[in-house]
Amino acid sequence: MKNSIVSGQKTSRTKTISMRFLAISACIALVAACGSDNGGSSASSGEAPEEVAIAVRSDVDNFNPYKSGLSGGTRVVFDGIYDTLVRADPENPTELVGSLATDWSVTPDSATFALREGVTCADGSEITASGVAKSLEYMGAPDSGSLFVNSVYGPGGLKSIEVDDESNQITINLGSRFSGLLSGLAAYGYIICPSALSDVDKLDTTPAETGPFKLGESVRGNKYVLERREGSVVSDLDTLPEKITIRVSTSDSTRANLFETGEVQIASIEGRDVERLEGKFDSIPGMGFGAIVAVFNQAGNSLGTNPAVREILALSTNRESYSNAASKHLTTPSDTLYTSNVTCFDEANVGIMPEFDVDKAKDKLAQAGFTSSNPLKIHILADETHGSGPEYLADEWRKLGIEVDLNVTTFDQMVKTVYGNGKWDVLLYSGAGASAMTTPAETAGFFSDQAGSGDMPLDVKNAVYDQAVKQAFEAGPDEACAHWAEAEKALLDETSIIPLVRKDIKWFTKDLEFHGEYFKLDLRSIRVKE
Predict the structure, then answer these.
(1) Is the pTM of this model over 0.70?
(2) Going by DSSP bridges, is the β-strand pair 504-509/497-502 parallel, antiparallel, or unpaired?
């Protein structure tokens, strides 16, 4: 029987955008109009270990996948206990494969999915078309508090979901054209077991598993034990470890110690602790999607509205030196917002940003009327994840006679400063580099109100960018990349941002192999090294 079970409205992110800002800074693809599945498993050869322990940086904040900030550690847990309609191909993250869905087709404002038969939740109840629709309806409801509704359903929000239980299909209808629906569902569309939707508050502490693992023992801030279960989309249980223990530590040094002592067999490490393990153990690179950038405050009459100031600071920024200061060259310098591993990366936009030229920066500074008696004064705001990068920028700009006030603080305090109209002129923004999506759609929400928010914290003033973003959202998959490239070019042409580096980590491992990304690994792909 076919019926429409939800009639949604365009959702404002004014109340939730601060949490989304947190979520994106903590961590898929424009795809063809149709696709099919790969059986729910990851295409890895070899045997899965019986047990494996993994050390991650961040704790699970909430078991409700629509309200969680989805930090790296949370994603590792959620990718085990929850499933999605489609997921990133672990061997090619810019492509999608099926999981709960076996086939799908898309239009500019809708998508139809044929669902896999015989899949159950961890509580034994069947996962039906109606159940999947109820979960996605809950995520799209205006009062759900979902942090990622615009990333999944676009600026027009969710219009309706049609259900056909006889054919086990659903059709998602959007409020406006949006090219990022499939990528949003892959990154954020975790399906909750329908039995939990009668009391969603319980999801804060108790998951409703639909993925290949169920949660066993858990100690917040310490560890989470995932146990392999029957009834998921992964039919061959031998391809999964029987038990996965996720250990949590915010310290790279502690995670490195856990790895060296054998308490864990996999550990995510970044920064200077990579050096002590490099060469002694195998490692798998985890690349971020998009660049860490310096963003200018362009609200009101802020200094960032002055194009001469933006050019001066860009001219006096050396990305290689910044990479060394931030991570001893463990990050990859980038002069584009979209890095080469992101769908819609356009080689033509490489080289648009001004090259490092201190003499030219000095000339521009004088031409703009800044002198020793009338110095340019800049306030830099950053959180603690950038190593010595902020200090490098401050020192480099001071060499020009610029007066620099540097505020390196906690992430929470940084968000409060931005949202509370605190003092900042340049923000070191990690959102692009930690994005869970391999398309430009996610970070557009922080630079443009075309993504559906009426309260943009970064307030970038760039009309050409806004128009290109609007066109990219409304375009079909084959046309969207041209508009995203135009949008990026607009930011670079106007020096609205200064791209700095792509943030990378290392997944260190002992005799195991798997597919890894930035602070996320594919639990279905873990195999004993042959």
Answers:
(1) yes
(2) unpaired
